[in-house]
Amino acid sequence: MLSLDLHPLFRNNRDIELALRQFVFRAHHSGEPVAEIIPGKGTGQLQSRVLAFLGQKHMRKLYDRAEVDPHNTGRILVHFSRR
Question: Residue 63: which domain range?
Fold first, then answer.
């Protein structure tokens, strides 16, 4: 499973967006059914930013669904269809 840990980037908005964009494109093209993004638990602000980023129309076209892991709220699972 592909994974992106955002802990080292949490203070720089531009780096976070770039890392997310590159990661989603890489995961989309990899053929993996699921990829994980780890914003951590913290205050939930980073997780909200990640979900808002994933909800943008141009990003939404790349995956089927995204969800907060029900067993670990510090992790977001992004599901891709195998087209």
Answer: 2-79
Total of domains in the chain: 1
For 4-58, give the DSSP string: EE-GGGTT-HHHHHHHHHHHHHHHHHH--SEEEEE--STTSHHHHHHHHHHTSHH
Residue 39's domain is classified under what CATH number? Answer: 3.30.1370.110
* pTM, rounded to two decimals: 0.93
Task: For residue range 2-27, list pLDDT tens digits in order.
Answer: 999 998 876 788 899 999 999 999 99
- In angstroms, the CA 50 to CA 55 distance is 9
Question: What integer pLDDT is reported at residue 63 of this predicted model?
Answer: 97
